[in-house]
């Protein structure tokens, strides 16, 4: 499958076939301090922040709401993931609005929106069925929202429903213990323009289990030697997810298209993305398409080298648990993360306890992933020594 650049989805100039800029956000953003009044703690020194009393709706209602949301996008992009508790008053329209504004106010392409409907419909092909969401929204196995409705901008995460939806996935029936490293991913890397921000609120949780982990792609990049970083920066990876096509065929429905961007059409779901990318908000480099559920191969290398590279990056994740923030979910807790710089992984252990794990997630669609050769790593930018 050709890369996004080769498909004329480029951001401009390219290096090794990788776009080198983000025209919609040419310079990193600077935090202005509007969130300093809200108490928080850092989950880990490297990754994660939790605001202890802040309600998301307070930000939306603030007189300087746009400035606060822009600053929140910067904090999320610097910390990777931000947690909130007790968001009992947060309704689906508020969740969608905040997620959409996080992308819009932090410089995503103007024509993009939530994983589906764009902000500027007039700039898109005339299509009455322009679809806002997940490719298999039409799947009969998808659950409704808690109020009994459906929403094309919201993906319902349900531990029981997903067993039915993804029954066509290869090796779904296990004959040996599951390799949990397969859970790591960043959202929508199977799209030409993947998600930037994802916003998940947990509606229902079992008494324990189902924790989610996030790992810093910034820090994993910083743990790699400079010569090997330089090599990885020349590579792209194919990020294929054929299960969407097979699920649609099995369910006799059409895949939703386009999805949040005029670039996200069709049902191939196999774009190429850079192994190392620049985060448009911070300007920092992170490992991106080097590992994860959707990454099927490193392009342009031999099969053994492909596996060796992905195994190496996965080993960096598993041996460096100081790069990981863990969320113990509680009812009405929420997390917002930047997929450009973190991977996340749910812990699939809820089958061992009574109760279901149900959440609602909105995702914004960002730019085509790029690598600015002049961008720095997080530690380089902040002057933090590795040791």
Summed up:
The chain has helices spanning about 55-60, 65-80, 90-105, 160-165, 215-220, 225-230, 245-250, 305-320, 380; strands spanning about 15, 20, 40, 50, 80-85, 155-160, 195-205, 210-215, 235-240, 270-275, 275-280, 285, 295-300, 325, 335-340, 340-345, 360-365. The chain has about 375 residues and is of the alpha+beta class. The protein has one domain (about 40-170, about 185-380): Clavaminate synthase-like (Double-stranded beta-helix, 4-Layer Sandwich), CATH 3.60.130.10.
Model description:
This protein is an alpha+beta fold and 387 residues long. The strands form 5 sheets. A 7-stranded mixed beta sheet has the order 3-4-5-15-7-17-6. A 3-stranded antiparallel beta sheet has the order 14-8-16. The longest helix has 17 residues, at 303-319. The N and C termini lie far apart (40 Å). It contains 9 helices and 17 strands. It has a single domain (40-171, 183-382), classed as Clavaminate synthase-like (Double-stranded beta-helix, 4-Layer Sandwich).
What structural keywords apply?
seven-stranded mixed β-sheet; 17 strands; three-stranded antiparallel β-sheet; AtsK-like; disordered N terminus; 387 residues; metal-binding; 9 helices; Double-stranded beta-helix; alpha+beta; single chain
């Amino acid at each position: 499958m050709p890369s996004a650049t080769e498909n004329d989805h480029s951001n401009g100039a390219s290096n090794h076939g990788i776009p080198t800029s983000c025209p919609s956000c040419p310079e990193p953003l600077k935090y202005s301090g509007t969130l300093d009044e809200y108490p928080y703690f850092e989950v880990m020194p490297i990754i994660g922040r939790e605001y202890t009393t802040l309600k998301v709706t307070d930000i939306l209602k603030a007189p300087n709401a746009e400035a606060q949301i822009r600053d929140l996008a910067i904090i999320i992009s610097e910390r990777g993931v931000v947690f909130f508790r007790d968001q009992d008053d947060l309704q689906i329209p508020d969740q969608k609005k905040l997620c959409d504004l996080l992308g819009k106010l932090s410089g995503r392409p103007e024509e993009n929106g939530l994983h589906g409907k764009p902000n500027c419909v007039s700039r898109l092909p005339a299509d009455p069925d322009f679809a806002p969401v997940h490719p298999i929204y039409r799947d009969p196995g998808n659950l409704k929202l808690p109020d009994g409705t459906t929403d094309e901008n919201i993906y319902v995460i349900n531990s029981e429903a997903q067993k039915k939806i993804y029954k066509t996935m290869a090796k779904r029936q296990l004959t040996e213990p599951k390799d949990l490293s397969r859970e790591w991913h960043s959202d929508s890397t199977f799209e030409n323009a993947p998600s930037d921000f994802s916003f998940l609120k947990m509606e229902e949780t079992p008494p324990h289990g189902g924790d989610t982990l996030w790992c810093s792609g910034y820090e994993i990049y910083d743990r790699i030697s400079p010569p090997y970083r330089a090599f990885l920066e020349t590579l792209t990876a194919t990020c294929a997810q054929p299960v969407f096509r097979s699920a649609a065929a099995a369910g006799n429905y059409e895949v939703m298209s386009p999805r949040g961007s005029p670039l996200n059409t069709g049902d191939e779901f196999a774009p190429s993305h850079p192994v190392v990318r620049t985060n448009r908000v911070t300007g920092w480099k992170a490992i991106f398409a080097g590992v994860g559920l959707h990454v099927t191969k490193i392009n342009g290398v031999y099969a053994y080298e492909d596996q060796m590279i992905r195994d190496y990056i996965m080993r960096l994740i598993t041996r460096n648990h100081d790069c990981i923030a863990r969320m113990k979910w509680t009812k009405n807790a929420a997390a917002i993360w930047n997929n450009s710089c973190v991977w996340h992984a749910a812990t699939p252990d809820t089958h061992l306890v009574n109760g279901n794990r149900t959440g609602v997630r909105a995702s914004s669609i960002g730019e085509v992933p790029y690598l600015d050769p002049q961008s720095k790593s997080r530690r380089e930018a902040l002057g933090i020594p590795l040791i």
